[in-house]
Structures are given as structure tokens and as C-alpha cells.
Amino acid sequence: MYPPRFNYESPKSLAEAISLLTAGGGEAKVLAGGQSLVPMLKLRFASPEMLVDINNIPGLNYVRRDADGSIHIGALCRHEDLEKSEVIAEHQPTIAAAAPLVADPIVRTRGTFVGSVCHADPQGDWSATMIALDGHIVAQGPNGKRNIPARDFVTGPFQNALAFDEIAIEAVIPAPKGDVHGGYLKLERRVGDFATAAVAVAVETSGGKVIRAGIALTGVGGRTINANVAADSLVGSALTIESIARAGELAAAAAEPRSDHRGSASYKRHIVSTFLTRILNNISESTVKAA
Amino acid sequence: MSSLYEEISAPPAAGVPVRRVTLNVNGQDRTVDVEPRLLLAHLLRQGLKLTGTHTGCDTSNCGACTVLFDGRPIKSCTMFAVQADGHEVQTVEGLATQSSLHPLQEGFKEEHGLQCGFCTPGMMMAAKALLESNPNPTEDEIRWAISGNLCRCTGYQNIVKAILWAAEKMRGSSN
Ligand SMILES: Cc1cc2nc3c(=O)[nH]c(=O)nc-3n(C[C@H](O)[C@H](O)[C@H](O)COP(=O)(O)OP(=O)(O)OC[C@H]3O[C@@H](n4cnc5c(N)ncnc54)[C@H](O)[C@@H]3O)c2cc1C
Ligand code: FES
Ligand code: FES
């Protein structure tokens, strides 16, 4: 399968990349890991006039934790960099749990976290983690930088809030105010398949009580679902059997699954509540142990 | 020098963008003129006649086209040849030397790690990347590392054994 013809540029700086996008007037596209874009081009779902390859721009491949506790993921940080990162293993359980479940090990050497969020696939894993963690994307365009909250970033299936001349340069997970807990569970038919259903959870606790919670669902709707009602129901008290069960019901109600070859809608709802309950039970056990 | 998607070695038609790139393939610098839309897998197979790299699905799923790009395994059907400019690519043709097979090739032979052989080059390249970072992998780690490579014949059992065989041989020879 041949992609359609396009011009190719490989700028060496962000400024150069942004002016190429500006000159492209909406007909140029960013090429990051290419693990979604190249297949789309081959299937002719996209036919940009120009690809602006950002892989040769120095300084974009990082994952780091700042002194305030916020975590920063650069535009060229690959899935496997997160899978191997000590910073993530030690400080960010939601991302750590999802990293080995994204695609397959070979796709993970190229595909990027930020590119995946930009791709806005309703079945993509990283958008859900970003929403659960209340993260934001830093976008840079001709007029400088702006922050876009993850929950507003995805505007529809395969659509994001970036202007045509903006590049997402980093994803930021804000500094926690309490103890950090989280998890990600995904049901897939086999390695490399997209989620039948998946659940991302991020919880902060202080003195045994939940002070912040985020829950997002993958693969059970036309876009990543922010199960904020379920998450809010947990805030202000300790995790108990009752509060966990209640959150499971609310998350299942927030899902908008469709029956397809991966399973029926009711099965997927059931998976959502089961996964959420499992993750919250684990968190509850670990907070009890720590206390 | 070849300009692919147009007739090989014919000058490209007017208006067709062409890029000159130099990449190192199995230790040798190669300079080629390519259209940006040319996939790395096609450059290797059609342009450089290195047909050991297979294309099975062409949809980024099967891993038959796996090569090492600066030492890491990638699906060469999911990267453009222009992107390899200035980079190192290793293909299955780079495994054996004039006089001997690579331990992975020996392992696949000894343990019957292939039947039709279609997935084999990709399997070996994925395994090479694994053994470079983890010389003593468990069976589980091997299964995990080749989980992006599909085999329709063997049921994987003997592929795993072949990689274990190679790992042991390579540990022995580096002592
Ligand atoms: C076999 C296979 C299985 C997969 N399975 C999964 C899975 O289970 N879960 C999952 O989440 N994903 C999966 N993926 C997708 C994979 O994770 C991709 O890596 C990811 O979706 C896109 O990231 P990328 O860096 O490859 O982006 P690209 O493919 O380069 O780009 C994707 C889109 O985002 C835009 N873009 C990329 N980076 C930026 C940026 N910095 N600024 C602005 N726009 C940008 C591009 O213009 C393009 O429109 C799979 C892919 C394959 C091939
Ligand atoms: S041919 Fe590249 S993944 Fe199948
Ligand atoms: S040996 Fe036939 S596909 Fe693996």
C-alpha cells in the first residue's frame, strides 16, 4: 500500500517546524512516531500536502519530575521510554500501569505519548490516563505557548483542540497534593489489539481520605470518557466497600459502549465496573497497609 | 542510485518530490534518491534488493518487517525511508558473517524455530534487540519481547526455545 504523495520536511528546531505548519495553511501535518499516521496515510484516510517530521528536533525526548512534583513528558518521549522510566515507576502508578499495555513492544519503540494524545483515538490508552490525572498539553504556535487541559483537548473522535499551526510540545501531570495512587486495567483480545474496555484511575489521599480522584474510560464511547461523577463520589471520605461499589456503578453508567466484535455493550459496562472496583480495592488495601 | 515508485533509475517525473538520503545498512553506507512516501521496507526490498525483510500485512500488525533502527526494533513498513537519513539500519542479512551463522540463526535451525519461515527475519531481529539489552532472558521475557511478531505456523513454542538456545550460546561465547 502506497501513501499518497506528500512533501517532507525535517526541521531542526521548533520555530522552524511551526513556520512550516503556518506556511502549510492547514495542509501540513506533524509526523511524530508515525505509528498511527503512517497506517492512516496508507489507507488514505489522510492526505496532507506536507509532513513536518519532528523527530530531528533536539530536546523533545524526555520524561522528568520537577522539584514541585509535576511530571513532564516531551513530544518525542516514546511509549517504551515510559515503560522503562524509573521516574514513572516510582512516582506515577497510572502511567506505569498503562505503559506496557499500549500496542505491542515494537510499536512502543517509535510511538509517542504526546502523539497518541493528539491522535485522539477513542480507543487510545494515553488520553484516559491524562484525563484521570487532570493533566494538560502544552501547545506552541506562532504566538507562543498555551496550556490545554486534557479533558478539553479531545474534541471528538480523531480531533483535538490544536490549531493547524500548533505543535503539542509536552504533556504535564500536575503536582499531587496528597499521596499518589492509581492504576490502569485494559481488556484486550491479544497483545497489540485496542481495548475492548479499559479504565484509568488516579487517586490522591491524605490522612486516609480521598482528596482528589480522576477516572477515565477507554474504548467504551465515541471518545475517551471522563467518568467525573464516579470520581467525585469518592472525594471526602475513605475508600470503603460501599463507596467503591457505588463508584463502579456510576462509572458503568457513564460508559457509552456499543456492541461489536469485541463484545456486547452490557459486557463492556460490566468490565468497566469490575476493573474500577479492582483498582480501587488495590488502592484501599495499600492505603490501609501504609496507615 | 534508485528513485523508487517511479521506474527505478529513471529520472523522476516533474513535480514529484525526491530526497537524497544516506543511511547505513548492515555496516555499509548507501545513498539513494527516494520519494518521501517510500516506506523503509520497500527501500530495503526493492531499492537495495535486501529481500530478507518481509512484508506480511503492510498494516503495521504482523512484525514480519521488523528491522533494527539505531539498535531498536521497528516495523519498517511503518516508517518512511527518508526518515532513515543519517541512521543505522540492521536487517536479517546482517546477521551471518562470511564464515558462520549468527547464534540466533543456529538456534532457529537447532530448535526448529521455523516452518514456512515468513515471520523468521522479523522474529530474529526482535530477538536480537532483546538479547542485546537482556542476555539472560526468562521464557516469559522472550514471549513478551516477540509479542509484536505474529507467526501463523509454529505456535511459538520452538521460536521461544530457539531464542533461549541462542541466548545461552551467546552468553557462553562472551565469557
Ligand atoms: C499495531 C498497532 C497497535 C496499536 N495499539 C494501540 C493501543 O493498544 N493503544 C493505543 O493507545 N495506541 C495503539 N496504537 C497507536 C500507537 O500508540 C501510536 O503510537 C499513537 O497513537 C500515535 O503516536 P505517534 O507518535 O506514533 O503519532 P503519529 O502517528 O506520528 O501521529 C498521530 C497524529 O497526531 C498528530 N501529532 C503527533 N504528534 C504531534 C504533536 N507533537 N503535535 C501535534 N500533532 C501531533 C499527527 O499529526 C497525527 O495526526 C497502535 C498502533 C499500531 C500500529
Ligand atoms: S508488514 Fe510491517 S508489520 Fe506487517
Ligand atoms: S514460520 Fe510460518 S509464519 Fe512463522
What does this structure look like?
The complex is a heterodimer of chains A (291) and B (175). Chain A is α+β, with helices and mostly antiparallel strands. Chain A contains 11 helices and 14 strands. In chain A, helix 6 crosses helix 7 and helix 10 (241-254) packs antiparallel against helix 11. Chain A is globular, with a radius of gyration of 19 Å. By secondary structure, chain B is of the alpha+beta class. Chain B folds into 2 domains: 2-94, Roll (Ubiquitin-like (UB roll)), CATH 3.10.20.30; 103-170, [2Fe-2S]-binding domain (DNA polymerase, domain 1), CATH 1.10.150. Chain B has a 5-stranded mixed sheet with strand order 2-1-5-3-4, sandwiched between helices. The longest helix of chain B is centred in the last third of the chain and has 18 residues, at 157-174. The interface between A and B is medium-sized, with 28 and 30 residues. The complex binds flavin-adenine dinucleotide and FE2/S2 (inorganic) cluster (FES) (2 copies). The site of one FE2/S2 (inorganic) cluster (FES) has 10 residues of chain B, from loops. Residues 29-37, 39, 75, 102-104, 107, 111-112, 114-116, 118-119, 121, 124-126, 162, 167-168, 192, 194 of chain A line the site of flavin-adenine dinucleotide.
